[in-house]
């Protein structure tokens, strides 16, 4: 990854010189009560030249696990670089975070309105501010997400295919899985790609939930990336992943054949064989019990943890093909 050292960077209209630290406020609109809400943006700059790295979370207001990951990076001082600059934004969609809702008050998904419009909807204005006032100054982004609708994601990095630099960075991060996925139109990742910014998108856990294993995986991965860039302070220990990341080139959702009460028995991130019992669906009356068997062999990278499912609901995401 190439970077150009700047004596000054401009974030949210403020010039910040090398060696400075500051806390800025990212805010686009007040609450309907006229109360102001200021979202802190933490900027830490070393005097030594290096990349500008941005850690983001909370694009979806209900994905609190991502917020916890960035919070830990700040609380532990991992965001204070040996060289270069680290910017942390723990909560982007503060409106959704206040109400623990995925979307903005206007019902829009922030991750579907990038790069935004200056005079557009509330979500679009936030996207525009983030894109023009922060992203333009950075070299690398790590964006933290979780699964939604009660579906628990195994810790994974998502990147586009045919990009050797992203492949290398994903390996360095060291999540158990790397999933190749296309850029979605008007997503944060797609906008960063169009701007020539390198991004890794992390998925792990589910909404309304903080999982220690997912959080530890992400924090350790962030440390490995910073160490790779020569930015991590020497006081922090960097450990190699327990296993090499598995690169997934294909996967398939297994859906419910019946409606009812659902309980998964297969463990996330483990390999199952076709025909294995991986869960069961029952009725509330003790008269029906359907065993869910794996349709094919592969690793389980997503589990539906909702206790109630309907016919056709996604239950498991199981890999079909791995990169050799």
UniProtKB/TrEMBL annotation:
GO terms for molecular function: hydrolase activity, acting on carbon-nitrogen (but not peptide) bonds, in linear amides; hydrolase activity, acting on ester bonds; metal ion binding. Residues 49-228 form the Succinylglutamate desuccinylase/Aspartoacylase catalytic domain. The keyword Electron transport does not apply. Pfam families: AstE_AspA_cat (PF24827). Gene3D superfamilies: Zn peptidases. Its cofactor is Zn(2+). Keywords: Hydrolase, Metal-binding, Zinc. This is Putative deacylase. It comes from Xanthomarina gelatinilytica. The lineage of its organism: Bacteria, Pseudomonadati, Bacteroidota, Flavobacteriia, Flavobacteriales.
